[in-house]
């Protein structure tokens, strides 16, 4: 009895919170037929938003992997002054509201900020363009890879690396043949989570993008814009694209869990 | 090959873990560093391996000062307490790792490396298990793979850090004999770190009894039994 009640509750919760909204997106997007949906998603402004979103994700991804690996390695393997501070710093993007983060970036890197102001005379503008969007996306997503890779590095310990060292391997060989294979799946997993977040990020990006139509609109911003324009079909059609991108990351995640069950089992 | 350990000292956060430790390991000899936990025996082994830099003292290999030489350049084969096998590599890949990471000029060709790995697999009596992964092996088998991996680089010296402590009593006994046997056949000098006096007495030619970062006495098992130099050695040996 208890078991059935619990299952029923879980199903109900999933239906109300997840299935119904996603179904609603689809039904609204296709309410005026596939033709109207196609017209909406092939709108140049929407396509531009899709491209900007994908471009941002593609720029942020390698930087996240690089930074995440370096930070996790440094924290796991070395004791240095500021190590604990770095651990806390990496968590900050999780704790700070994205919109506050966006405002902070504007304050520092905007035309009237200390950094942005200094670059202004050289014609370098950081905010209200792709650079600004990439910067805040990096801020929002930088914890993911570290948080996935660090515990694996800490569990696998240093013994394998020391063994490789005594066997004559150099630093690069140790990293390439011992460390990296041990964290590969955590790395891929963290990168997927970070990418999903970068694609869906709204708050921080909305502050620094400047919302120039057809230029600095990412997909989430474009959806809000269309919705506020009372273009419901357009908004929901664009939302199907964002949902599709999100589902794609879910499928990738599932594939990893299938190939490598031990990692997927971790929360 | 003769390794001379000369007045090695090491402090961690102000606490002395090694004080003026000196010992000479001769060609083909099996030496045990015996002592309770915290006596500095593992630190001394790590200094010899190059994984830890001493604060004072010297290491001389056949008269050449190797104190500042990096661990990889020393060519000492090390067997870790946890074995530290590379978990994503097969047994054969584990054993061949030290051969593969050599600079191109010094490296055997692929066939030569494979032949060497086969030879070592036969030596540890696991000729058909080269394709297994470490997780698919028993503790005793993992220990033998760790031995083979360390021997693959034709080490000048074999360093064994509590290599039997993770095994159950029965396997431990049979492996002691086979490790000693393997070491004799290869003819390499070996240093064994252990807290188990029975183990030290069974396999070692000479034993260095350590306490509080100092070497209290060095001698053959017979010498130690006949004439313990300090009350600590006397107590430690009779406590067994």
TrEMBL record, chain A:
<keyword id="KW-0764">Sulfate transport</keyword>
<comment type="function">
    <text>Part of the ABC transporter complex CysAWTP (TC 3.A.1.6.1) involved in sulfate/thiosulfate import. Probably responsible for the translocation of the substrate across the membrane.</text>
</comment>
<feature type="transmembrane region" description="Helical">
    <location>
        <begin position="124"/>
        <end position="146"/>
    </location>
</feature>
<dbReference type="GO" id="GO:0005886">
    <property type="term" value="C:plasma membrane"/>
</dbReference>
<feature type="transmembrane region" description="Helical">
    <location>
        <begin position="232"/>
        <end position="252"/>
    </location>
</feature>
<dbReference type="GO" id="GO:0015419">
    <property type="term" value="F:ABC-type sulfate transporter activity"/>
</dbReference>
<keyword id="KW-0472">Membrane</keyword>
<feature type="domain" description="ABC transmembrane type-1">
    <location>
        <begin position="50"/>
        <end position="253"/>
    </location>
</feature>
<dbReference type="Pfam" id="PF00528">
    <property type="entry name" value="BPD_transp_1"/>
</dbReference>
<dbReference type="InterPro" id="IPR000515">
    <property type="entry name" value="MetI-like"/>
</dbReference>
<protein>
    <submittedName>
        <fullName>Sulfate transport system permease protein</fullName>
    </submittedName>
</protein>
<feature type="transmembrane region" description="Helical">
    <location>
        <begin position="186"/>
        <end position="212"/>
    </location>
</feature>
<feature type="transmembrane region" description="Helical">
    <location>
        <begin position="50"/>
        <end position="74"/>
    </location>
</feature>
<dbReference type="InterPro" id="IPR011866">
    <property type="entry name" value="CysW_permease"/>
</dbReference>
<keyword id="KW-1133">Transmembrane helix</keyword>
<comment type="subunit">
    <text>The complex is composed of two ATP-binding proteins (CysA), two transmembrane proteins (CysT and CysW) and a solute-binding protein (CysP).</text>
</comment>
<keyword id="KW-0812">Transmembrane</keyword>
<dbReference type="InterPro" id="IPR035906">
    <property type="entry name" value="MetI-like_sf"/>
</dbReference>
<keyword id="KW-0813">Transport</keyword>
<dbReference type="InterPro" id="IPR005667">
    <property type="entry name" value="Sulph_transpt2"/>
</dbReference>
<feature type="transmembrane region" description="Helical">
    <location>
        <begin position="86"/>
        <end position="112"/>
    </location>
</feature>
TrEMBL record, chain B:
<keyword id="KW-0547">Nucleotide-binding</keyword>
<dbReference type="Pfam" id="PF00005">
    <property type="entry name" value="ABC_tran"/>
</dbReference>
<dbReference type="InterPro" id="IPR003439">
    <property type="entry name" value="ABC_transporter-like_ATP-bd"/>
</dbReference>
<keyword id="KW-1278">Translocase</keyword>
<dbReference type="GO" id="GO:0015697">
    <property type="term" value="P:quaternary ammonium group transport"/>
</dbReference>
<protein>
    <submittedName>
        <fullName>Sulfate transport system ATP-binding protein</fullName>
    </submittedName>
</protein>
<dbReference type="InterPro" id="IPR003593">
    <property type="entry name" value="AAA+_ATPase"/>
</dbReference>
<keyword id="KW-0067">ATP-binding</keyword>
<dbReference type="GO" id="GO:0005524">
    <property type="term" value="F:ATP binding"/>
</dbReference>
<feature type="domain" description="ABC transporter">
    <location>
        <begin position="3"/>
        <end position="237"/>
    </location>
</feature>
<dbReference type="InterPro" id="IPR050093">
    <property type="entry name" value="ABC_SmlMolc_Importer"/>
</dbReference>
<keyword id="KW-1003">Cell membrane</keyword>
<keyword id="KW-0472">Membrane</keyword>
<keyword id="KW-0813">Transport</keyword>
<dbReference type="InterPro" id="IPR027417">
    <property type="entry name" value="P-loop_NTPase"/>
</dbReference>
<dbReference type="InterPro" id="IPR017871">
    <property type="entry name" value="ABC_transporter-like_CS"/>
</dbReference>
<keyword id="KW-0997">Cell inner membrane</keyword>
<dbReference type="GO" id="GO:0016887">
    <property type="term" value="F:ATP hydrolysis activity"/>
</dbReference>
């Amino acid at each position: 009895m208890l078991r059935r009640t619990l299952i029923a509750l879980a199903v109900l919760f999933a239906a109300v919170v997840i299935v119904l909204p996603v179904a609603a997106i689809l039904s609204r997007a296709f309410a005026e037929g596939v033709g109207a949906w196609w017209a909406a998603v092939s709108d140049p402004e929407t396509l531009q938003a899709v491209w900007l979103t994908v471009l941002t994700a593609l720029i942020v991804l390698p930087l996240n992997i690089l930074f995440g690996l370096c930070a996790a390695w440094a924290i796991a393997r070395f004791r240095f002054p500021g190590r604990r501070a770095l651990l806390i710093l990496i968590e900050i993007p999780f704790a700070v509201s994205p919109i506050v983060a966006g405002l902070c970036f504007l304050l520092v890197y905007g035309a009237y900020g200390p950094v942005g102001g200094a670059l202004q005379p050289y014609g370098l503008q950081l905010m209200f363009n792709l650079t600004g969007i990439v910067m805040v996306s990096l801020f929002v997503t930088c914890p993911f890879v570290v948080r996935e890779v660090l515990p694996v590095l800490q569990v696998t310990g240093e013994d394998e690396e020391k063994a490789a060292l005594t066997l004559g391997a150099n630093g690069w060989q140790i990293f390439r043949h011992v460390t990296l294979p041990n964290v590969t799946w955590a790395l891929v997993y963290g990168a997927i989570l970070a990418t999903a977040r970068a694609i869906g990020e709204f708050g921080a990006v909305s502050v620094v993008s400047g919302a120039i139509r057809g230029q600095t609109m990412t997909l989430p911003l474009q959806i809000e814009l269309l919705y506020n324009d009372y273009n419901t079909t357009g908004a929901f059609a664009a939302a199907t694209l964002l949902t599709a991108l999100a589902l794609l990351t879910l499928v990738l995640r599932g594939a990893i869990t299938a190939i490598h069950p031990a990692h997927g089992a971790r929360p | 090959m003769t390794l001379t350990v000369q007045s090695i000292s090491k402090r961690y956060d102000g606490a002395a873990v090694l004080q003026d430790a000196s010992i000479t390991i001769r060609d083909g000899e099996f030496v045990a560093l015996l002592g309770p936990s915290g006596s500095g025996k593992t630190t001394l082994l790590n200094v010899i391996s190059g994984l830890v830099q001493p604060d004072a003292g010297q290491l001389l290999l056949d008269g050449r000062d190797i104190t500042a030489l990096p661990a990889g350049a020393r060519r000492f084969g090390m067997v870790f307490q946890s074995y530290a096998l590379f978990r994503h590599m097969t047994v054969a890949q584990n054993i061949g790792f030290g051969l593969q990471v050599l600079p191109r000029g010094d490296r055997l060709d692929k066939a030569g490396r494979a032949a060497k790995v086969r030879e070592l697999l036969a030596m540890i009596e696991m000729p058909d298990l080269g394709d297994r992964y470490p997780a698919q092996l028993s503790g005793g088998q993992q220990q033998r793979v760790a031995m083979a991996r360390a021997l693959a680089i034709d080490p000048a010296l074999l360093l064994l850090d509590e290599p039997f402590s993770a095994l159950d009593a029965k396997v431990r006994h049979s492996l002691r004999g086979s490790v000693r046997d393997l070491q004799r056949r290869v003819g390499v000098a070996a240093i064994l770190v252990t807290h188990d006096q029975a183990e030290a007495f069974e396999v070692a030619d000479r034993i260095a009894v350590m306490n509080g970062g100092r070497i209290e006495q060095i001698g053959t098992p017979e010498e130690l039994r006949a004439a313990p130099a300090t009350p600590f050695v006397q107590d430690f040996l009779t406590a067994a």
